[in-house]
Amino acid sequence: MLVAGNWKMFKGPSETVAFFDAFDPPLGVDVVVCPPYVSLARAVGRGVTVYAQNVHWDAEGAYTGEISARMLVELGVEGAIVGHSERRQYFGETDETVARRAEAALDAGLGVIACVGETDDERASGRTEEVLRRQVAVLPRHERLVIAYEPVWAIGTGRTATPAIAQEAHALIKSLHRAPVLYGGSVKPDNAVELMAQTDVDGALVGGASLDPESFRAICVAALV
Prior knowledge:
Elements: E1 2-6, H1 13-22, E2 30-34, H2 40-43, E3 49-52, H3 69-75, E4 79-82, H4 85-91, H5 95-107, E5 111-116, H6 120-124, H7 128-137, E6 145-149, H8 163-176, E7 181-184, H9 189-196, E8 203-206, H10 213-222
Parallel strand pairs: 1-2, 1-8, 2-3, 3-4, 4-5, 5-6, 6-7, 7-8
Helix pairs in contact: 7-8, 9-10
């Protein structure tokens, strides 16, 4: 089981140090923490695998505000999230750019968590399978690639896919790609056990609940049940 915490735009360097001072990762579960860029250096070397929240597809260039895979490797970061729905929604990320970011990171020796998932309108109109097939189809086949199913309607809303909905989506994704599949979308200590007990759920990508060390540890422990 893999449990990854996506901190989004929370926790600067000092808050990152405080988090790791209080966080005791349980044995037997792979734990990843994804801080903002400015906090990566403080997170590396604290006994937990560190991923970035995004990565560019070129090694260098005139891309203001972007960070390359090579830079992350030099810093000691071990991987990156690509294609999070917030990147797609707010910053124009497309299936093509997600694929390019994933390929560049993998080529540089990083691990990748590639996010896929449908919006509320897409689910309501019966297009969930179509959307997942399209998003998964562009992802490279690689042993260091992990897919995260994050229904967009469940991210930051407090709404969570039922275990049955999660299992159905994960089974579909696994029929299309051999990568492990995490569930993401309002994962909390009180629903983590049931979600991660599903046959095709291989862990969780946690948002807000990963910001508190006790809450995040409880979710990591739930992966062991």
